[in-house]
Amino acid sequence: MCGLVGIVGNRDVAAEIYDALTMLQHRGQDAAGIMTCQQGKFLQRKGEGLVRDVFRSQHMSQLFGAFGLGHVRYPTQGSSGTALAQPFYVNSPYGIALAHNGNLTNAAQLSDEILRTDRRHLNTDSDSEVQINVFAHELQQLGKLEPEADDIFRAVSAVHRRCEGGYAAVAMIASLGIVAFRDPFGIRPLVVGVRQRGEGEPEYMVASESVALDVLGFDLLGDVAPGEGIFISSSGQLMRRQCAEHTRLMPCIFEHVYFARPDSMIDGVSVYKTRMRQGERLARKVLRLRPEHDIDVVVPIPDTSRVAGQSLAYELGVKFREGFMKNRYIGRTFIMPGQSQRKKSVRQKLNPIPLEFAGKNVMLVDDSIVRGTTCGQIIQMARDAGANKVYFASAAPAVRYPNVYGIDMPAASELIAHERSEEEIAELIGADWLVYQDLDDLLACSREGNEAIDDFECSVFDGRYKAGQIDAHYLSSVEAARSEGSAIRLAATQDGAVVGLHNDA
User: Fold this and answer.
1) Residue 257: other Cβ atoms inside 10 A
2) Is 2 among the residues known to form the active site?
């Protein structure tokens, strides 16, 4: 689940891309990159780490150009390494750079086509590199020295025909401008905004979330529609066209649960209000199951469950307290590569306030439970702080199935809820009682914000994969690749080698 930014402005844009990436840092902490274009030449800086660590003043001072793109990377399948930092670049045709968010479920097939039919070379196992080569090949097939907007949209249409899965991408063509597109199901988010400064031409920006527009003073024009292509010329002209034959608006529900910032608008839905409704619905279920509950206090697990926790406590008529203090210099544990690193970081990240736990029946609330390791440790921290009973509430349903659209949960064996009952899960994590949000309630919370949404991608909850040809064989191959990659990375770490593997998000 990466973060994307593309800006076409009236002056150098690198500093603004940097600011936008800091607003999207929650979407990826593995690597960051910025690429700009000046007089037909690409200028780039990318590397592993947070935005603030990758870019120094000496780097920014060399990134000239009035249009460019940026990326923060979150690795799926545990892959990492500077070789996979984005944007990616190909020099033929024209010079093209691309930043990508999501996962191509037919990447293996496309890799073979790119080699055997398109006669292009891939240097990594990244599906982002696959996508840029598909786009480049389709542009090259047109055989034009200087492509026009119609040509670019035809190439985007070909990308949609060939690529399966969930994806959003922002590309840059040397001297020409910025291209952005979103998969025909709208699984991965992408928004576009405009800003008018003085008497000059309007400036445009595309980004994964609207918060990136807000910080730079861009007005939200709306979401990039499923299957839509956007071309913003270097002179500042915005052109939009539907480039897919069959489309449905079917956004990823996990954006509303966890990934997106609460101050974002995605597909016309306020993430903040959605999470408030999640807490309200969850409270109704608690009251339905245990009308005579003995909960003394609701404590959120910072930060993504705070909004749902507040409305949950209000509906239950109990106190809401911040029982854990967060070290904000530790990254988001869910998107950290490697289970051992997640385990280590929880104690570094959260510290309980014993006063809020001692002698109380505490309901902890989190946005979701994926592997269960983190919440198990947090429950034990609450007990160590003196809690009498520890209940656990999840604002999302049980995560029982792998994700194949760019979220790092591809192996069913790693999911604590897979083939387990709620009672078994409660015992494993050490909770006195466990309550999950019902799927129908979760979907209602999001649909209330925009009834025009056709459906939601919620395969991690119901096992229904609506994009790409996903079957048991595909899921088994993904899990096997993940296991093989983990073993190679372990050996590489022991040998001091650098390895980059598998899909990007």
Assistant:
1) 29
2) yes
